[in-house]
Write a structure and sequence with these properties.
Blueprint lengths: L3 H4 L3 E5 L8 H11 L5 E5 L5 E2 L2 E4 L10 E4 L6 H11 L4 E4 L9 H16 L3 E3 L5 E4 L3 E3 L7 E10 L2 H12 L5 E6 L8 H10 L9 E6 L5 H13 L3 E6 L13 H5 L2 H12 L2 E3 L2 H11 L9 E5 L2 H13 L10 H8 L11 E2 L6 H14 L5 E5 L9 H13 L4 E4 L7 H9 L8 H13 L15 H10 L6 E2 L6 E3 L2 H10 L7 E4 L2 H11 L3 E6 L10 E5 L2 H12 L6 E6 L4 E10 L3 E8 L2 H4 L4 E5 L4 H9 L4 H5 L9 H16 L4 E11 L4 E3 L2 E6 L1
Helix pairs in contact: 3-4, 5-10, 6-7, 7-9, 10-16, 11-16, 13-14, 14-15, 17-18, 19-20, 22-24
């Protein structure tokens, strides 16, 4: 529970404050004092009489009532101190800096639980333990440096790691990124990252609150809560970027399906972020760069003009933007020729616009004006301007400052000379600007932002999926495996007829097929649907590995021979015969991730999924817009769209099947893994050819 005593306390007691500013207790007092705290600051230290000019209390029992207590004492002393403060001093907020709790030992976890129980009993807020503290415009209750510049429209930053928070702040400060608040939640015993987002969402004031949130997450304890409040904030006009660390490990078990081999906890995170509209970052530099971009006017298009006096960085930025799906259009025509006449001989206006190392601040300003007013096919301007050390840059950066204020198109300053022109860059930042010192990092961050879809609608799109029938089928399934999984005695693959029944209830088209242990039945079926047909063994999980698939069977005699051969394969129980279809192979899969729900994967089939793993993930249930976004994000999307004379597929039907499958999974949590591979697609239809469903009961 977050309360006003935590956010804006009228009194703060630092338990363990000291004169040694090289230790947490002393640094905490120093930062609060230097932060111009307007309330009453009290210190508790049994060994000192005065700490940094403040008279000291020797015991917490001596304190008068205090709204916020910051504990910087050994872990073993914290539970008793919290008890006294909550019961006797009416303390309603606690920040526990101390480590040595649940992150280390069982005894530490018990102490942590005792503290939580006390806070819950007396209605107190708890940050930590094992954190660096809380920093906002009311009080600087952190023991670390740097203290960033604070501004109402600065960034709200929430971190699950104290040390990482410090390193991210270091990265942000040198870019000029300003902050509104910094939350270090530590162990998050009461208040986790999801709870901070909930408070920000439920109390959001668009006129006074920050519209940018940056997150460093190590553990997502409540994905639904994170999804709900992050997407809600984004719909209210906020922009959110996050790092999720520690999600690269797949499960410990050996995967028996394509989906199981590809999907992981990281896929679930990726899907959650996409659904919420969170820009995913993978490094401190990327996160702070995205944060800086969020402080600028939003991009309205993908077309960039690059203004530089250094050819190489301009080329590298062009390459990086183009690789990320952004555009650096060639500038030509009367306006381009006119600009060229006003620059020094040898300058280039093709884009990048190279004004040469000898280009003047006046020429810089003129070039920006042309990009703003004369080049209509430009949406944003990147300015790369450093120094070889021959001149100062105050005048050039003053021009850049004025143009950022004047121009409607966003300007991205790339000032790389942090050492040689340190004072000039510092003065530029002091005027409230940000700096992207590396052009490729900027391009990567821009690409990530542009590729992040808006939050998905929360409604489940049923699309005529027969939920009652699906539940009836799932309920009647016996827990006796017909095709046992190697993973667990309670996990097993459903027989083909049941898989077919479930897909039919979801409205997913299925290729005509017949499963039988009778040769004559299968030959009669083949005659009915027409040759050529495909024969597949039923029983073994990996059919191709045991020679259990034969294509292009054109005669009854050939079918009879293949039936006899396949029935001799180990574990074979029957043979499936299908009408042979042609088309582009597609893949859809799903895997259930604990707490997250079903992660749905889509991509091209065949080598694309097996070797290249060109897949996109989404979190069930999916909307039509989410499905289209997943399809369009595939590296092989050009094949789906149609390329080099090859016709494309019916994209609408592919998206519809993805949505239908996700709806099915929303109401069938017993399904732990699922593959539909391949689906065969052409301009008219998308049809499921083979599917496997792993169920757990």
């Amino acid at each position: 529970m977050i309360n006003q005593e935590l956010l804006a306390p009228k009194s703060i007691a630092v338990i363990g404050g000291s004169n040694n500013i090289h230790k947490p207790g002393g640094a905490m007092v120093r930062n609060i004092l230097q932060g111009d705290y307007q309330g009453t600051l009290r210190i508790v230290n049994p060994k000192e009489d005065e700490v940094q000019g403040i008279k000291v209390f020797h015991d917490v029992r001596e304190l008068p009532p205090t709204e916020l207590a910051v504990l910087v004492i050994p872990a073993k002393l914290c539970p008793d101190a919290v008890d006294i403060l909550a019961k006797e001093k009416d303390t309603k907020a606690f920040i526990i800096i101390s480590a040595g709790f649940g992150e280390e030992t069982k005894a530490g976890a018990e102490m942590e639980q005792r503290i939580l129980d006390t806070c819950e009993q007396y209605g107190a807020a708890l940050i930590g333990p094992n954190c660096i503290g809380l920093l906002n415009r009311n009080h600087h209750s952190v023991f670390t440096q740097p203290i960033p510049k604070l501004h109402p429209k600065g960034v709200d930053f929430v971190s699950g790691s104290g040390a990482t928070a410090v390193f991210i702040l270091e990265s942000a400060v040198i870019k000029g990124l300003q902050f509104n608040s910094v939350w270090s939640i530590g162990n998050g015993k009461q208040i986790g990252i999801e709870d901070v987002l909930q408070y920000m969402d439920e109390h959001f004031n668009p006129d006074t609150d920050s519209h940018v949130k940056l997150l460093y997450i190590e553990n997502i304890s409540n994905p639904d809560k994170l999804l709900f409040h992050a997407s809600s904030l984004i719909r209210k006009g906020c922009r959110i970027a996050a790092i999720k660390a520690g999600s690269s490990e797949s499960g410990s078990r050996a995967a028996s399906s394509h989906t199981g081999a590809i999907a992981s906890s990281d896929s679930a995170v990726e899907a959650l972020f996409r659904k919420a509209g969170i820009v995913r970052c993978h490094s401190r530099e990327e996160l702070t760069t995205v944060g800086c971009i969020f402080t600028l006017p939003p991009l309205t298009g993908r077309r960039f003009a690059i203004v530089t006096h250094a050819g190489g960085p301009g080329v590298m930025l062009t390459d990086a933007l183009s690789k990320g799906g952004l555009i650096v259009p060639k500038l030509e025509g009367d306006a381009a020729e006119e600009l060229k006449t006003k620059l020094f001989p040898g300058s280039s206006v093709a884009n990048p616009i190279d004004i040469l190392a000898t280009g003047t601040p006046e020429q810089l300003g003129l070039t920006i004006d042309y990009c703003e007013k004369r080049f209509e096919d430009i949406d944003a301007i990147a300015v790369i301007y450093g120094t070889p050390g021959l001149t100062t840059l105050y005048q050039a950066y003053e021009v850049l400052h004025q143009k950022i204020l004047e121009c409607k198109k966003p300007i991205f300053p790339i000032l790389p000379s942090l050492h040689t022109a340190g004072p000039e860059v510092a003065e530029f930042l002091a005027k409230g600007h940000v700096n992207f010192s590396d052009e490729v990092t900027l391009a990567t961050a821009l690409s990530q932002i542009m590729q992040t879809p808006p939050p998905a609608p929360p409604e489940v799109q049923l699309f005529g999926v027969d939920i009652p029938k699906i539940r009836e089928i799932i309920s009647r399934i016996s827990s006796t495996p017909s095709s046992p999984s190697t993973t667990s005695s309670t996990s097993f693959y459903l027989p083909p007829d049941t898989v077919r029944e479930i897909l039919s209830c979801a409205g997913i088209p299925i290729v005509p097929e017949k499963v039988s242990s009778s040769k004559d039945e299968l030959i009669a079926f083949a005659q009915k649907v027409g040759y050529p047909v495909v024969a597949k063994v039923v029983g073994p999980v990996h059919k191709s590995d045991v020679g259990g698939v034969t294509l292009n069977i054109r005669t009854p005699e050939h079918l009879a021979l293949e039936f006899d051969r396949m029935m001799k394969i180990q574990d074979a129980t029957a043979v499936m015969v299908q009408k042979m279809l042609k088309g582009t192979e597609l893949f859809i899969g799903a895997k259930y991730e604990e707490r997250f729900g079903h992660v749905v994967l889509c991509g091209l089939g065949g080598i694309f999924v097996e070797v290249l793993k060109d897949v996109q993930s989404g979190l069930a249930p999916l909307s039509a817009a989410e499905a289209y976004s997943m399809i369009h994000s595939l590296k092989g999307y050009k094949i789906i769209k149609g390329t080099r004379g090859q016709k494309g597929i019916n994209e609408q039907k592919y998206a519809e099947i993805i949505v239908r499958l996700s709806t099915l999974l929303r109401f069938a949590t017993e399904i732990k893994e699922m593959d539909i591979n391949p689906l065969l697609a052409d301009e008219q239809d998308v049809v499921a050819v083979d599917a496997r469903i792993l169920i757990e009961k």
